[in-house]
Amino acid sequence: MSRHHVFVTGATGYIGRALVPALLARGHHVRMLVRPGSERRAPAGAQCVRGDALQAGSYRDLVAPADTFVHLVGTPHPAPWKGQAFRAVDLVSIRSAVEAARYARVQHFIYLSVAQPAPVMAAYIAVRQEGEGLLDRSGLRATIVRPWYVLGPGHYWPLLVVPIYRLLERLPSTRDMAMRLGLVRLEQLVSALVDAVERPAAAPRTIGVPEMRTLAGRLAA
């Protein structure tokens, strides 16, 4: 396995706090974008880069020598009434990240998006679709990772609906939707992101919920 230089935005968030140690444990070099004062939250072995995720000019000169860019920035606890925040944070940050990655001549961009289509969260999905479109037009080689709800510390309430999911997955008329919008564990998503880092696709790639559920075992083997 080749070692990668990985630049991570949103590294101190819910998913980033799990991803960065996983990358370090596998021997990758990690640089993480942080706001001033957040350096203390960085795991040992990661290099902190100060900057503003909403302003590419604040950090684009500091992305190199990364060959891989992982963008995790997003509004915490997405909800239907947070449409303004999605456009002010999620959309602006992906625009800035694409600009910074292109400026630094990054070889591979990994974008944490969301499962599509879905009957709810229209504003959130629309912004993530715009982000995917930006990547498609950028010329960057990209991997899009599309979870729905990620189970982990502080995020376990959907376990209450697991029996409903199991039923929907058995019915031919709802199986595709239930699988696409299925629940994944935090460790499964992290495994998918690590796999994307270590196996950059030659062409644009999308990782959905069913694939995420299989990758943890592959990396452990």
What does this structure look like?
- The protein is of the alpha/beta class.
- The chain has one domain: Rossmann fold (3-Layer(aba) Sandwich), CATH 3.40.50.
- It has helices at 16-25, 83-103, 122-138, 162-170, 175-180, 186-198, 209-220, and strands at 5-9, 29-34, 47-50, 68-71, 108-112, 142-145, 149-151, 183-185, 205-207.
- The strands form two sheets. It has a seven-stranded parallel sheet, with helices on both faces. Strands 7-8 form a two-stranded parallel ribbon.
- Helix 3 (122-138) links the parallel strand 5 and strand 6.
- It is globular.
- The relative contact order is 0.14.
Rounded mean pLDDT score = 91
Biggest sheet record: 7 strands, parallel
Task: Just name the CATH architecture.
Answer: 3-Layer(aba) Sandwich
Quick one: overall form? Answer: globular
Instruction: State the fourth-level CATH superfamily.
Output: NAD(P)-binding Rossmann-like Domain
Spatial strand arrangement across the major sheet = 3-2-1-4-5-6-9
The gist of it:
This protein is α/β, with parallel strands linked by helices and 221 residues long.
Question: Can you give keywords for this protein?
Answer:
221 residues, alpha/beta, Rossmann fold, seven-stranded parallel beta sheet
Helix and strand topology:
Blueprint: E1 5-9, H1 16-25, E2 29-34, E3 47-50, E4 68-71, H2 83-103, E5 108-112, H3 122-138, E6 142-145, E7 149-151, H4 162-170, H5 175-180, E8 183-185, H6 186-198, E9 205-207, H7 209-220
Parallel strand pairs: 1-2, 1-4, 2-3, 4-5, 5-6, 6-9, 7-8
